[in-house]
Amino acid sequence: MTIPKTQKAAMLFGPNDVRVQEVPVPSLQQGEVLVRIMSATTCGTDLKTFKRGGHPQIIKSLPSPLGHEMTGIIVRLAEGVQGFGVDDRVVIANSAPCLQCFYCEKEQFNLCEDIHFINGAYSQFLAVPERFVRTNLHKIPEALAYEKAVLTEPLACVLFACQKIPVEPGETVVVIGDGPMSFLFNQVLQMQKARTIVFGLDTQRLEWIKQSGADHVFDSSQVDVVKTVQGLTEGHGAAVAIEAVGLPQTWEQAVQLVCKGGRVLCYGGCAKGTEMKLDTYRLHYDEISILGTFHYTPSVMDEAIRLLAEGRVNTAILTAEQRTLNDLQNIFLGKDPKPALKYLIRP
Ligand SMILES: [Zn+2]
Ligand SMILES: [Zn+2]
What we know:
The chain is an alpha/beta fold. About 30% of the residues lie in helices and about 25% in strands. One zinc ion binds near residues 43, 45, 69, 153 and 154.
């Protein structure tokens, strides 16, 4: 393809301010590849970043490119690129570990002391930095469409989280939250043959999650959450509770929902400096475990691509609403006429 000199890119200028700009198509440094972005998806992290006008780890200066869930096709290679060629279809992961630090040595790549993040899914072209090409760029199998592969990153976060709480078939798992991550948790938990109970606040979102196969969904403003879970588990509580909201009060609630020996997975990240109350009795005498999880490691991206390629994840509901770069401002302001768990963006 002929590569133009300039491109359209959605740039974050400050709180609640995304503008589509005409910017240069980046030139490449040693080890980099240029990707024509084919599809991107909106994500809760982007929304948070939009509202705050930045992100402490991910966006250091403004105006900044935005968006981190993306697929595309390689259109140009710099010197020194190994393992990739022009016309390769790829998922670009949004993080790249250093492979050398204390944590990387232990293969805890998500905890890397010098992890790099990339934004720019909402642009037509992206120069993928050398470290990303080397550590976290993934080819898309021929049969897998860009519009499905674009969910690799959020699915990888969920798969990585689920590794922390191995679920036995038939176990009851509560998911608190009705966003896209709750949707994906339900997909993965169904593969593991768990019985799922979901609590949320949005009737439409709960309906989508139910359609995707959740066993029970409840509007948590209409029911007593603890009693509901007890009622469905002969009074014991669930084997696992996953918090996918990111509020201290729902973290605390998750602790109340598990049986003795149960596992609580705190997936939703809370604001910095927040604290939770913990009944120590539950931890000691009831032997519950409380686990955190952050992000994912590169190998889990491959696992996510494999599941998507095998058609084992319902992607249709998550990518039904397709938009362009010009729609992003309205989407993030919540003004898009059609509500959706995610929007598929074609830059
Ligand atoms: Zn995301
Ligand atoms: Zn590292």
